[in-house]
């Protein structure tokens, strides 16, 4: 049900997006620190919603659908906001483009497979991909200003975030290719089965 706590946590993750975008638009170290706190809380809900759903036996198709959508909305929205605010260093704008293209392709593939009554389960590599992306975006949200405000001026937060975003491209592309090949294999197998039934 939508009112189950795991689903509420997922919805809160989505609700945090406009708050984060507004905070980023303020362009101040204080706002960036607050954005980091809100973002960290949103990332924690990504772990909690699944863990609680499994522990309380509240697994549902609604939750299974909403959880990856919430992740994609959070990552995609913040990448767009950071790009618009020119806060993506070391050419990591292009890493963001690769990430967005992959997410759109995989989402489209999942939608098509659902229409064919096929599924595309999430993989462990895809979860690692999401984790690295979230850590990278956390550093980019805080930036050097937030690091300095927290007494960590020696830490090149923006540079670390940009490098991590590029690093996340590796599992992003590999997992995306895995989804694509697995999806096409299942689709072709399904069409073969349908053809066999028609021939009889």
Automatic annotation (TrEMBL):
Membrane-topology descriptor: Multi-pass membrane protein
Regions crossing the membrane: 31-48, 69-85, 134-157, 163-184
EC number(s) for this protein? 2.7.8.5
List where in the cell it is found. Membrane
UniProt-listed InterPro entries: CDP-alcohol_PTase-I (IPR050324), CDP-OH_P_trans (IPR000462), CDP-OH_PTrfase_TM_dom (IPR043130), CDP_ALCOHOL_P_TRANSF_CS (IPR048254), Phosphatidylglycerol_P_synth (IPR004570)
Q: Which pathway does the database say it acts in?
A: Phospholipid metabolism; phosphatidylglycerol biosynthesis; phosphatidylglycerol from CDP-diacylglycerol: step 1/2; Lipid metabolism
User: What highest taxon heads this organism's lineage?
Assistant: Bacteria
Catalysed transformations (reactions): a CDP-1,2-diacyl-sn-glycerol + sn-glycerol 3-phosphate = a 1,2-diacyl-sn-glycero-3-phospho-(1'-sn-glycero-3'-phosphate) + CMP + H(+)
User: Which keywords, in A-to-Z order, does the entry hold?
Assistant: Lipid biosynthesis, Lipid metabolism, Membrane, Phospholipid biosynthesis, Phospholipid metabolism, Transferase, Transmembrane, Transmembrane helix
- What is the first-listed, main subcellular location in coarse terms? membrane
Query: Pfam families per the record?
Result: CDP-OH_P_transf
Keyword flag Transferase: yes
Any GO molecular function? CDP-diacylglycerol-glycerol-3-phosphate 3-phosphatidyltransferase activity
Q: Which family does it belong to?
A: Belongs to the CDP-alcohol phosphatidyltransferase class-I family.
Q: What is this protein called?
A: CDP-diacylglycerol--glycerol-3-phosphate 3-phosphatidyltransferase
State the organism named in the record: Gluconobacter vitians
């Amino acid at each position: 049900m939508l009112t189950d706590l795991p689903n509420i946590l997922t919805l809160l993750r989505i609700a945090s997006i406009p708050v984060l975008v507004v905070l980023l638009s303020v362009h101040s170290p204080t706002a960036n620190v607050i954005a980091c706190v809100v973002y960290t809380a949103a990332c924690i809900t990504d772990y909690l919603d699944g863990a609680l759903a499994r522990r309380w036996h509240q697994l549902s198709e609604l939750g299974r659908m909403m959880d990856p959508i919430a992740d994609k909305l959070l990552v995609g929205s913040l990448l767009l906001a950071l790009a618009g605010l020119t806060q993506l260093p070391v050419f990591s704008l292009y890493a963001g483009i690769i990430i967005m293209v992959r997410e759109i392709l995989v989402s489209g593939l999942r939608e098509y497979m659902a229409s064919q009554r096929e599924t595309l389960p999430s993989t462990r590599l895809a979860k690692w991909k999401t984790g690295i992306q979230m850590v990278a975006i956390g550093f980019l949200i805080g930036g050097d200003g937030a690091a300095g405000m927290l007494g960590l001026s020696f830490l090149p937060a923006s540079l670390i975030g940009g490098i991590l975003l590029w690093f996340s491209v590796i599992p992003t592309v590999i997992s995306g290719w895995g989804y694509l090949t697995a999806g096409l294999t299942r689709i072709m197998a399904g069409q073969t089965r349908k053809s066999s039934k028609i021939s009889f």
